[in-house]
Specification:
This protein is of the alpha/beta class. Helices cover 45% and strands 16% of the residues. The strands form two sheets. A seven-stranded parallel sheet has the order 3-2-1-4-5-6-7, with helices on both faces. Strands 10-9-8-11-12-13 form a six-stranded parallel sheet, sandwiched between helices.
Length: 389
């Protein structure tokens, strides 16, 4: 049975981490033996991995604190499990996995970047210098893949776009969930916007709140629910208060019932300054919500202007408010058609079963190439014979 190790910066309720769990649990049913290694101690998502008997390890590192001991812990784990594929997610794990390959050889090393911008120029330089140590770099957005090639962050022949996948069975409209959610929020007769995501700088919630203040002035029945936690929570609550929005905006904190919350909404809004392809946007599309988002990163892959949503420039609350009002002013039938188009786009391009099948094919193709190279050089390696062409 071929073995795949997923190395991730952390395990928390973030889109990238959820994608790792979705891949690991799905690939186990495709004949792979997965394990997950987190650089820092996990704070979430261990339950679905345990339910599938997928081992989870952590390197005992601390966020923001370089610790070379993590590299040697990773080397030990890789020498123990001897994976055929090391699939790394997010910048810190991508760089650590590449360096570890020099200490514990792995046939195939893949890096997945989850944002068009994973840091400043020093991180770009680190990617560039370690590029020879990985076999493939994937970006979750087309814009990200183009940027990495154009700026020579990764060699073009081995840089590809492969988006995140969404569980279409879990995320879909549900009438009962809609009524229950709106009842709990006491907003049954209001137009409910929803936003989902960590309260951090990339999501640019100050932009969203400024835009929503303009929306409420023209449409007092508008309401906004924000699901997520993060270091900006207190400052965002202060901003909402200063804009006179406490009765119209509700900060829901970290939630695990996102499908139910999305079913309760009338439309989805995303105000990001930069992005990869956000899982929450795909989940909202799968729940048949009209989408309003900034034209950054993979948002432009998901939204077709005027068809399944509206796109606006980043850092522009006036334009964001204008797009939100345009959606609210549509006839209900037009909004429903826009939501149905969002669901159709998710089914066509982002269903997790199709994405997992693509990963399975990529792994096996790369292993086949490595097996052929090993035979030609006379090396035995430790690839399973059934993967050899």
């Amino acid at each position: 049975m071929p073995r795949v190790t997923f190395l991730t910066t952390g395990l928390a309720l973030g889109g990238a981490e959820m994608q790792v769990v979705l891949l690991a649990t799905s690939l186990k049913h495709q004949g792979w033996k997965p394990e997950v290694i987190s650089m820092i101690p996990p704070v979430a998502l261990t339950e679905p991995l345990a339910a599938e008997s997928i081992p989870v390890f952590d390197l005992g590192m601390r966020r923001g604190v370089p610790d070379p001991r993590g590299l040697f812990r990773l080397r030990r784990l890789l020498r123990q499990s001897r994976p055929h594929v090391l699939h790394c997610h997010m910048v810190h794990a991508n760089l650590l996995g590449r360096v570890a390959r020099a200490l514990a050889p792995v046939p195939v090393v893949i890096s997945t970047a989850h944002s068009i911008q994973e840091g400043g120029r020093w991180r770009d330089l680190a990617y560039r210098l370690t590029d020879p140590l990985c076999d493939l770099l994937t970006q979750v957005s087309q814009a990200g893949a183009k940027r990495y090639c154009a700026e020579n962050i990764s060699a073009e022949p081995k840089t590809v776009w492969l988006p995140n996948g969404v569980d279409l069975a879990r995320f879909q409209p549900d009438g009962e969930d809609r009524e229950r959610t709106r009842g709990e929020l006491e907003w049954r007769d209001r137009f409910l916007w929803i936003a989902v995501g960590n309260l951090r700088e990339p999501k640019d919630y100050p932009n969203m709140l400024a835009a929503f203040a303009a929306v409420v002035k023209k449409r007092p029945e508008a309401r906004l629910a924000i699901a997520g936690a993060g270091p900006l929570a207190a400052s965002l609550e202060r901003q909402a208060a200063s804009l006179g929005l406490p009765g119209a905006v509700r900060f829901l904190g970290q939630r695990t019932d996102i499908p139910r919350l999305l079913s309760g909404a009338d439309a989805y809004v995303l105000s990001s300054a930069w992005e990869g392809t956000p899982m929450a946007l795909l989940e909202a599309a799968a729940c048949s919500l009209p989408l309003v988002a900034t034209a950054v990163g993979g948002n432009t892959d998901v939204i077709e202007e005027g068809h399944n949503g509206r796109m606006v420039p980043p850092h522009n609350p006036a334009r964001l408010a204008e797009a939100m009002l345009a959606v609210m002013d549509m006839p209900a039938e037009r909004r429903a058609a826009m939501g149905a188009a969002a669901r159709a786009k998710a089914e066509k391009n982002y269903g997790h079963r199709a994405i997992v099948a693509k990963w399975d094919n990529i792994y096996r193709q790369l292993l086949s190439v490595k097996a052929s190279e090993s035979r030609q050089s006379g090396g035995g390696g430790f690839l399973p014979s059934r993967l050899r062409p």
